[in-house]
Model the fold of this input.
Amino acid sequence: MLQQHHHQQQQQRCRRLLEQGNAPELQQQGIVGQRLRRQQQQQQQQQQQENPTTTTGTPFVVNPPTVTKISSGTGDHFGPVMSADGAFVTYDPDGVIYLFDRKTGATITISPADDGTYTQPSISSDGRFVVYQDANGHVFLYNNDASSAQYKTTAPIGVGTSPVISGDGSRIVVAHDGNIVIYDQQGHVLSTITPADAGAAVSLVKPVVSADGHVISFWGADSANADGPGHLYVYDQSTGTISAIASSAQHVGASAASISADGHYVVYQSADAGGHTEIYLYDLHTNQVLFHTANASGGSYNPVISPDGHFIIFASDAKLTSSDSNEVADTYVVDVSDPAHP
Done:
């Protein structure tokens, strides 16, 4: 009777250790602990078989604990971009470029105080440099490096649209006259990529650059129709090679691609012949798609990948989670730390 009571006590203790995940202590409980451990593993395997994961994954809902308003005024405020270290945010309400310092809470105007219209800011990873353009296709560089003699000064870079800046601020990439142009901080042209270089039929648009500066991606149009078909290209500056990695049957260049900081992954949106859009994660090392959305109830678009390549944030009209009960587009995050099990 005492032996049976002791056995029951040991089983109860083992179950508590299982719930706590205390494997080392569980091993010390001998045969009873080992048997319960095997039963748990068998149950987990059965659950995985009954509920297998898919390569399309399930985005999850993010409920931020605090949302802080950083802009003011009556105008519409567009295009917020944050530095990788989270210290600065730049945005362009009504044609003016602002820079917000999250540490001090101060907001300053960095575009010229004139009647010009300025848009599309892009900020370096550490927040030391911001590039933007005016309505006439001129690109400017604002110096936010407190240790520099040019601190809080603005310099013209050259002509172009859709400017982006590398993580260290050394490279500025723009679209101009159907080409992709790479500048340094002094406005010198380092390289020009033409449609002929990429194998595109007409023009190249919407460039993006990795934080380390060695990978540049852009869309190439297959026709003069700006809303027509095209291909997504990647230029590796370390090898000098240009590769087509994806295509879109419509809306080429409607949304720029996004590259992880090390140039390993690219996310983009692509439309089929009916105009339905989905997002894709492409591995530049293995040259294959690792993840994509797939939902006929609505399109997914405007993806951005985190610097470490572990998360993708995007918008979608589709109901991708059971908690989506509204009839408007929602913002989703998908964890692709393990692309095989997003």
